[in-house]
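Listing 4. Sequential folding, example run.
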Amino acid sequence: MTSKLSHQSWATIHGLVLAMTLLAAIGARGADSPAKPSKFALPPPSIDPSTGLPLAPVWIDPNWKDPDRVLPEVTYDGLPVGTVADHLRSEFKGAFDILIPGGWQDLNNPDQTIDSQQVTIRMQLKNVTASEVFNAMNLMFEAQNEPYRWELRLNGNRPTARFRFLPQFLQNPSPPPHVLPKTRMVYFVGDLLDDAKTGGMTMERLVKIVSEVYQMSYGDPKGAIQFHKDAQLLVVTGTSDQTVFVQQTLSALRGKAQAAKEKPQPGLMPTARPEEKKNP
């Protein structure tokens, strides 16, 4: 009796081990097998073997089938894209759906938006199918560097034309140029002035010289250089670089005036000091 029970116990254990082994094998096989792709998922982007970069996505699904109708003539003269969509729905008897978003807005820059109501179509075609009409619009968008494209996809089994925005093709506005702050400096120039009757430099002549030198580097000095004759002050309004430039100009004029004072005048001989008498 004991031997029989022992034999049954071993058989039970062996059966459990075999069942667990089969379950583990089935689980491993399921983990190794790839998941079934969704019918709504787009195929992964193809890689260009010559460059190693992703190829441009195909704009039309290979399973798209054009309606059995050819339009003898299509003329759109600046019609809104929504009006064009309504016309195509009517011409092809609702054989496909058309999706047009109302607009697009950059989350990081709310001022940068695209409004689908502003998109217009202007083209003339003859003897074209539905896909050829959408392709012609894409060619027009590309030629005009506009950030729109049509895509022909399958929404399940339903053919669908989707109007897409391509923000990467938007031209970002250039940032405004940096404007340097302006300061106002006042310089005393009385030491550079002299009586006009003796041929010295007048206030008007000094301002003329400084203005001409300023114009050589910064253009018209109007509004930048002013003066007060009685107070013998020169007022300069500009950037720090411009005010420093005027200050250097005044320093150069002072150096020139000092050199002129130290230079002996022509025709004048320096007077000799009288000799001192020596005591016998």
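-- end of first protein; second protein begins --
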Amino acid sequence: MNLEEYRKNKAKCITWKNIKPIYDAVQEAKTVEIDNINLELDDWVSITTQSDISKEDHKKIYDACKMLIPWRKGPFKLFDIKLDTEWQSNIKYNLIRPYFDLKDKIVADIGCNNGYYMFRMLEDKPKRLTGFDPSPLTMLQFDFLNYFAKTPIIYEQLGVEHLDFYEHKFDFIFMLGVLYHRPDPIGTLKTLRNALNKNGEILIDTFMIDGEDEVCLTPSGRYSKIPNIFFIPTINALKNWVSRAGFIDIEILETTVTTSQEQRKTDWSFDQSLEDFLDPNDPTKTVEGYPAPKRVYLKAKKKN
């Protein structure tokens, strides 16, 4: 595959009918010039300034924020604007934070959305930090935020399937909330392995079901109203997938049940969220009757 040609074609997404007005709003906001920017990498990724912002410039920034709805991953503070996103992604980041050290490493975040986790990862001072996500909307969200933050993060409108053709390999790959969207999970994990340097590591999370058997749930249609969910394994089945894909030193880091503290409706997101995806009479089940969303976090090393 010629990635440069693919990138050129993908860049044309800004001309799509549903994307062009959003792109134009972001470009208008990027005419605003603000000095003395400060980037704070905390639960709220905050971009602040000591300088005064005119009413006209503030309106351009606020209008772009509104056009970029839904904001799913965050939260962010952009000057005095609080982007209270659907997902409180700080909860997940703080959960996995003790399990990695990215200093001087070449790092990828597969399915990076608008880059929230990558902004947080900057605190480790990685050598290179690259996000992969084909979504035009999340790319524009990142482009908008990074115009003010001015970080060296690289954002690629590519998916995990493009790693085999990418220009270099990585020391550490995150893939959070992606594996259950892939119809060939072992093949996807092999792609991660092939994209790693010697002794490279992955940290992933995925939906899981309880049980000791080496089996997985295959939803007949949607799962928790989410389309394109293919396989939801037990932990033992997941460990088998990871092992068969060529990884060793497999560690189960955490398991969590998704709650409304972590995922909920806000003024900056969709008009439906977790509470609408669960059975109103039994929150341990999805509206389709499957077990409610539960996640497992796993870390593993490439078998050299």
